Amino acid sequence: MAVSGVADGRITIALDLRDELADDLFDAALLARLAACGAVVRTGGSGDAAVRAGADVLVTGWGTPPLPERREALGRVRLVAHSAGTVRRLVPKSLVADGVSLSHAAAGMARSVAELALWFTIGHLRSLHSVERAMHGGRDWAAAQAVPLGTTVAGTRIGVVGASRVGRVYIELVRALGATVPVYDPYLPEAEAERLGVVPTPLDELLAGCPVVALHAPVTDETRGMLDARRLALIPDGGVLVNTARSALIDGPALVAELRSGRISAALDVFDDEPLTPGDPLWGLPNVTLTPHIGAATRHSRRTQGAIVVAEIERFLRDEPLEHAIRADTYDRLA
Q1: Which three-class secondary structure string do you get for the chain?
Q2: 8: pLDDT strictly greater than 90
Q3: Does residue 274 carry a catalytic annotation?
Q4: Fewest Cβ atoms closer than 10 Å to its Cβ: which of 64, 65, 183, 197?
Q5: Any bridge partners for residue 184, and if so which?
């Protein structure tokens, strides 16, 4: 194996990750593959500048301190292999534009996040959040049985905003259960929509015509705050909003107002402030399911993310294109 400009093909790989995260990502077999690529060092997630500057490959993840804007400040780093999804907080676009290769492992998290979104969907279609509160909160069997009849995924129009990696797995899951799936994604080619078995639909039409709306879009200048008060009001009475993507897609105060009215319900895994502050209005709302940003928190995801990172480093060593690359021309849409 050889990388242009790296003597004898031996590289230094810096795991700029918290040790416990590194242990979750890389089992013994993956660590052995990394060691076959080059010398592996750890920073414990400190972002140590000297270790970074001495590395050819930097492996980053949740909690890694941001990288510098200037290419020169990174020493000889030529590849940043991010073990998670969104990199915008961590890796400035200027580094990518200046020749640093960038890869992420969002694909490794897709199944786990999509399954949480499916669980949210089924739960709210059956009003299980209300049943659970009556059973555990009130110990009231009769009240739990009196929750209005729900519905099945089969035969339900489930609108998906964003045919991302997670979105596509979610589409696969709900279609397998019999849902009809309108999708809003201006970047989804017609042929790909046909392959996925979905119906490309304008956003307002999707919101107005679907009793379940699941968000799977990235946060960009186009999508930030896209679900404002006007659009939230389009969701049918009794509708369900599922968000395992990013809270910035929604106007927070407008969502709280809708939820307080009781007109719709929501299942949320992502929030403007994390952790939620004690005074956040979302706490205690009876029509909301809250989870603490754990969509990707499964053993399967962690190992899959680690395997993606290792495979990308191996491709880098062979001078092959990265399978999960983020380029300067796709940074604003994918990062």
Answers
A1: CCCCCCHHHCEEEEECCCHHHHHHHCCHHHHHHHHHHEEEEECCCCCCHHHHHCCCEEEECCCCCCCCCCHHHHCCCCEEEECCCCCCCCCCHHHHHCCCEEEECHHHHHHHHHHHHHHHHHHHHCCHHHHHHHHHHCCCHHHHHCCCCCCCCCCCEEEEECCCHHHHHHHHHHHHCCCECEEECCCCCHHHHHHHCCEECCHHHHHHHCCEEEECCCCCCCCCCCECHHHHCCCCCCCEEEECCCHHHECHHHHHHHHHHCCCEEEECCCCCCCCCCCCCCCCCCCEEECCCCCCCCHHHHHHHHHHHHHHHHHHHCCCCCCCECCCCCHHHHC
A2: no
A3: yes
A4: 197
A5: 161
Q: For the CA atoms of the chain, what is the radius of gyration?
A: 22
pLDDT digits (tens, 9 = 90+) for 96-141: 999 999 999 999 999 999 999 999 999 999 999 999 999 998 999 9
Q: Higher-confidence residue: 116 or 10?
A: 116
Q: Which of 126, 133, 157, 293 is flagged as catalytic?
A: 293
Q: Is the per-residue pLDDT at 150 higher than 50?
A: yes
Task: Name the catalytic one among 246, 302, 315, 324.
Answer: 246
User: How does pLDDT run across 286-327, given as a tens digit for each residue?
Assistant: 999 999 999 999 999 999 999 999 999 999 999 999 999 999
Catalytic member of 69, 194, 222, 274: 274
Do 334 and 87 touch, CB atoms closer than 8 A? no
What tokens does 229 get? 């008060």
Q: What angle do CA 68, 74, 78 make, to 5 degrees?
A: 120
- To the query of whether residue 115 is one of the catalytic residues in this protein, the response is no
**Is 246 a catalytic site residue?**
yes
